[in-house]
């Protein structure tokens, strides 16, 4: 009877743990803490019963109560002994070498900024844009929610954030078993967003249930792999995939390293496993930023050994609290500032890490700490209560420069700020409606004492055109007049163009100007002629002004075009 009861108990025990395994799915890997938490009781309890019965059979009745303590003590000794062997105290060199950081040249490595391909929208702003575009499609809003993933990838040469549509709940999942409708893609440069509907639904998602759940699906087919961060990406044809890290540890959950990735088709569930160094180039996120930040901090802390990190602290550095992403050579990079262990408000340099190859470069560029630059930018318009994005580090004509976006309470970008890395007191803040290139020009003027150096692609080398304007509203700045015409065109005129006319421009005046249209749509005036009728005496009224749609240029004008301005904006309208 006892033997039969034992067999039934063992069968029920195995069946119960098997069902629990299907729900929890810990990796079958001794370096995973989840493995020991799940399988420890499953092994230790039967082992205790076997040892206890053996003790009873041999007549060791008095010592049977000590066996559980002995088993626990033995397991604890092995666990904590291993931890001691791979702790920073005894393995500081191993911690410092988790990532290899090479000193490099900022000017040589970081290309001159391309404003046509720059991630101006951060993750929060991208989420707001994505929510808005999905909210405009009723059939999607009622069935699906938007995943918070918003992975940053380089897609067909553009820097975009992508995220899948998720199941709203368990019931919506069963009514959409074939999958969700598609994914959202947000251009982080232009702010344009769209919902891409896939021919077949996205079936394997983190929000799916049962065997369609992404983690369950991947873990069941890779039972011995320790899964890490998951990112949503697109190949160059727009096919959606999940890229899942595989990790290995030096000891139980200590010193993780990325060993490779598992690429899972979000539609079909098909998987391909790659080792580090063999990952296809279209994949951008092999290493996740949180793990990279840990590696950078270990590198900065333990280069001189454990004793040095705690006492003398010679050469000990750490990453600043934040990080962000930029692109270079078609790859996505994470970068963060490097500051001394004293945590002052300045950086001694910064580190950039290629998230596909793990290549890390240190640039010894001393200057403002990122949060100091953010405070400096906000301080320029503190009355508006704007918030700042984490700075983008760019190469602007060979100068390390922080670029920030200032946002209102609704998350909309209202202004651009440029801050000099070496001196955060040098800051220029410009209305975003004029465009990022105009903001950069204004910053360079400030840096160069009011004169922007002429570059090969300087807009001033463009052909000029002639147009008649009638002033509607005026905004005057230091040495500059901004005009909006009756046709809602926007013009910028510096006092230096003609100091006898420009400072005295009034609403209702009419002028003939020679100008070029900058890439941000703002018309930059290079010469001006007053067409406002003169007033013969104080009792006379100016003659009525009419808008001339076609004005014939003077014979001596150079490359002038006749421009027709209509109610839809005409040339150069924003």
Structure characterization notes:
The protein contains 13 helices and 27 strands. The strands form six sheets. Strands 1, 11, 12, 13, 15 and 16 form a six-stranded mixed sheet that branches. Strands 2, 3, 4, 5 and 6 form a five-stranded antiparallel sheet that branches. 27% of the residues lie in helices and 30% in strands. Residues 451-460 and 537-574 have low confidence and may be disordered. The chain is an alpha+beta fold and 574 residues long. It is elongated and about 125 Å long. It folds into four domains: 23-85, no CATH class; 123-286, no CATH class; 370-447; 458-574, OB fold (Dihydrolipoamide Acetyltransferase, E2P).
Labels describing this entry:
elongated, 27% helix, disordered C terminus, alpha+beta, 13 helices, 6-stranded mixed β-sheet
Quick take:
With 574 residues, this protein is an alpha+beta fold. Helix content is 27%, strand content 30%. The radius of gyration is 32 Å and the shape is elongated.
Q: What is the fold's blueprint, element by element?
A:
Blueprint (H helix, E strand, L loop, with lengths): L1 H23 L8 H25 L9 H19 L2 H9 L4 E3 L2 H4 L13 H13 L2 H4 L2 E3 L4 E5 L2 E10 L2 H6 L4 E8 L5 E10 L11 H8 L4 E9 L5 E9 L8 E9 L5 E5 L13 H14 L3 H5 L6 E3 L4 E5 L2 E10 L5 E2 L1 E6 L5 E4 L3 E2 L1 H11 L6 E2 L3 E5 L2 E9 L5 E8 L6 E5 L4 H12 L17 E13 L2 E6 L4 E5 L15 E8 L5 E8 L44
Parallel strand pairs: 1-16, 25-27
Antiparallel strand pairs: 2-4, 3-4, 4-5, 5-6, 7-8, 8-9, 9-10, 11-13, 12-13, 13-15, 14-17, 15-16, 18-20, 19-20, 20-21, 21-22, 23-24, 23-26, 24-25, 26-27
